[in-house]
Amino acid sequence: MGRKLLLEHINVPGINTFDVYRSKGGYAAVEKALKTLTPDEVVEEVKKSGLRGRGGAGFPTGMKWSFLAKPEGVARYLVCNADESEPGTFKDRFLMTYLPHLLIEGMIVASFALGAKTSYIYVRGEMMPQIRILEKAIAEAKAKGFLGKNILGTGYDLELYVQPGGGAYICGEETALLESLEGKRGNPRIKPPFPAIAGLYGCPTVVNNVESIAAVVPIINEGGDEYAKLGIGRSTGTKLISAGGNLKNPGVYEIDLGLPAEEFLYSDEYCGGIANGKRLKAVVAGGSSVPILPANLFLKTINNEARLMSYESLAYGGFVSGTMMGSGGFIAYDEDQCIVRNTWNFARFYHHESCGQCSPCREGTGWMEKVLHRLEYGHGKMSDMDLLVDVSKKIEGNTICPLGDAAAWPVASAIRHFRDEFEWHVTDAATAVTRNYGIAHYADPLNTVVA
Amino acid sequence: MLSVQDTNMPVTFTPELISKFADIVSRYPEGKQKSALLPILHLVQAEFGWVSVPAMDKVAEYLSIQPIEVYEVASFYTMYFLKPQGKYMLEVCRTGPCEIVGAGKIMNYIEQKLGVKEGDVTEDGLFSWRGVECLAACGFGPVLQISPEYTFYEKLTPESVDTLISDLKAKAKN
Ligand SMILES: Cc1cc2nc3c(=O)[nH]c(=O)nc-3n(C[C@H](O)[C@H](O)[C@H](O)COP(=O)(O)O)c2cc1C
Ligand code: SF4
Ligand code: FES
Asked: What is the pLDDT of residue A174?
């Protein structure tokens, strides 16, 4: 069994309260950092840990922190990204619901490291219950002297606030989030300048995911070197995977990075296999934006090696036969699911969520939705698959923010791997509206698929 | 019965509401009070059930910004209702992971049960419903949330939908 660094105490009754959290060793990282380390030493520990951003892009957190500009007399900000809206991802909501103090502890340590005196947790507006939980926890921590003026007598001051969003997936993109926090529409900014130079109110700002911030706590407690011993290669530490879809045991799991994908999917310690004794057809490993893989290519890489749950192994094979870790939003599809329908659903999502600033994204997502809709409902043409790939290529790389890519990849990968199922929706349109294609060859041993 | 309010009806903000606004404004640096816009719109909606143009104008006045700055925000984000809704708005997640575990069936069931189309209000003024995008609970689908409190329901079945609707009806009576 892997080590639990984040979820170790998740089942302790009352762990959402300050007193119980503290009795389990909570806030030790704040004491250690503020009393025994300098801000630069905290950054150094995070660098040594090898922690990579858990929000989706996987950028090394310590490096991001060291890029923060520090002009004299200018405020700096830490903003926690708790917008969690990527379909398939539900780990941050889980963490904030059950372990609010872990996030607050991480925010204090990270704010100290960055020299921020005011920090915000931007929570998607729909999570009103979690906002209430966090506000209560912040009040408790403040009453105990862990927030506010002169924290623990160290002379460090920090105010921490929770900011609700208004319902918009795009506000998870860090510059859209900052716009939203400034009280504006969530239109992503053109980069550069990056937030590290000009972020919130034009001041140097770091934006980090909830899980990245929480991971700072065990990193400071145990030391960056110890943290880096967990995991595999450049995928250090543990990762929360939120597993949903047609699974026997859906839920949030903390895994050591490098766990074999097959073990994660089938062992009873984790997902327990596919629900109702069905077979696995496909997997979206890291949230709706990452390429979908058929069962066989998810479990084994193109080299016939076991696929591991690590940044590198999931990406092995590039876009031809690999995928990405993304946000850890893991979705399993059983033999009865229709890939065309699912792809249409995702395309509809991205069209709905496009902020509309760039024409390739605004128009392209609409076209993809339309064409996929007609394929799913029996009015497709054989040329539609090439049309979809063409549209996706015209979006990819031609937009202000990565939402365009996020919309293009699921469509392009579904057609790459499941083309025969798409074609069947055209050749057997009347049948395709009454039943699904089934599992076909998608779970067969690799060598029969890849000639 | 809830009558559809006159959209031009002037609104007044109670002193309690104004003091909540002031508390929010105090979270930001001097001169950055516009940051309070999204949280304030949530408070306005919780108070009045939706955000009308006169309410938005008053928010603009309070924050010393132009009315258009409020309108463009209120219309960009999906959570703000620009017309009156039922007292309880049932929002069902319709995105992929919930869809493959039966979200579509739950939406059909709710439509049938309430007897109104997506976005419409039941005759007694109590309910509206709509499909929304992923609510970050994908492992526990199908899910729905109910504003104004955003209470959350997981692993929905027709039976659990029946129960929550009759509970809300009872609550509305008290
Ligand atoms: C369309 C879009 C949506 C995103 N949504 C989220 C999100 O909900 N939560 C999140 O932490 N990061 C999200 N990101 C990534 C953020 O832009 C940013 O990289 C991340 O918050 C940085 O934190 P990290 O380095 O700790 O991962 C999104 C990016 C894009 C392009
Ligand atoms: S890529 Fe899409 S979401 Fe991103 S800025 Fe352009 S239009 Fe907006
Ligand atoms: S897809 Fe429904 S909560 Fe994520």
From this structure: 98
Q: Do A125 and B134 touch (CB under 8 A)?
A: no
Q: Quick one: CA torsion of A239, A240, A244, A247, rounded to 10 degrees?
A: 70
Interface test with B, best of A128, A278, A338, A346 (most B CBs within 10 A): A128
Counting Cβ atoms within 10 Å, is residue A265 exposed (0-12), middle (13-18) or buried (19+)? Answer: buried
Cβ atoms within 10 Å, residue A44: 17
Paired residues of A258 in beta bridges: none
- Closest chain A residue to the Cα of B69, Cα to Cα: A184
Yes or no: domain A258-334 corresponds to CATH 3.10.20.600: yes
* pLDDT averaged per 10 residues, chain A (length 451): 89 98 98 98 98 96 97 97 98 98 98 98 98 98 98 98 98 98 98 97 98 98 97 97 97 98 97 97 97 97 96 96 97 97 98 97 98 97 98 96 96 97 97 94 76 43
Task: Return d(Cα B171, Cα A269) in angstroms, integer.
Answer: 41
H/E stretch holding A331 reads strand A329-334
Give how far Cα A348 sits from Cα of A82, A165, A303, A377, Å. 23, 22, 34, 14
How large is the average pLDDT for residues B32-37?
98
Cα angle A228, A232, A235; round to 5: 70
Dist CA B139 CA A330 (whole Å) = 9
Place of tokens 């870790």: A325
Class of the CATH domain delimited by A18-229: alpha beta
Structure tokens at B156: 């929905």
CA B13 to chain centre: 19
Of A376, A371, A367, give the one whose Cα is nearest residue A429. A376
What radius of gyration do chain A's Cα atoms show?
22
Q: How many CA atoms lie within 13 A of A53 on its CB side?
A: 18
Region of B31 please: left (phi>0), alpha (psi -120 to 50) or beta: left
Q: How far is CA A316 from CA A299, A310, A329, B40, in A?
A: 12, 10, 18, 47
- Class at the top of the CATH hierarchy for domain A339-432: mainly alpha
Residue ranges of domains in chain B, CATH in brackets: 4-76 (1.10.10.1590), 88-173 (3.40.30.10)
Tell me which residue of A368, A396, A365 sits closest to A169, measured CA to CA: A365
Cα-based angle B135, B83, A123 (whole degrees, multiple of 5): 30
- pTM (2 decimals)? 0.96
First to last CA, chain A: 38
Q: How close B114 gets to chain A, by Cα (Å)?
A: 23
On whether any CB of chain B is under 8 Å from the CB of A84, the answer is yes
Cα A296 versus chain centre, distance: 24
Q: Which residues line ligand 1 (CB under 6 A)?
A: A 53-57, 59, 61, 81, 83-86, 170, 172-174, 207-209, 212, 401-403, 406
Starting at the edge strand that comes first in sequence, how are the strands of the sheet with A280-284 ordered?
A251-256, A238-245, A329-334, A280-284, A293-294
